[in-house]
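Students often ask why we bother encoding 3D structure as a string. The short answer is that it lets us treat folding as translation between two languages. Here is a chain of 97 residues written in the first language.
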Amino acid sequence: MNKRKSFKEFAEEVIQARGHFDASNHYHLRDIVHKAIDYYQLKSFVQVEIIGNRRIETLHLASIVEENMLLRLAEITGNMDECSLEVIYDSCVVRKH
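And here it is in the second language, the structure alphabet:
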């Protein structure tokens, strides 16, 4: 069984690989969430819709456990007083739990 990195180790590695990282930029935080979904093999997913010239990303959360994991990761990497998935995804969050 492969040992997974802690959230802090994962976040630090992704931030280093990315180069420039702005902790208050929602798009940078979304990138970390996307990578975490793949890395930790979560059932949650991001749906991308293109409407006109707008790109809308909707986060579909499969369970409360996965929601808490992604929220914890966002809190570790984010530089906001109140960090939430709703703020990062502009209220485009669907809970399936």
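Translate back mentally: Residues 26-39 form the longest helix (14 residues). Keep this in mind for the problem set.
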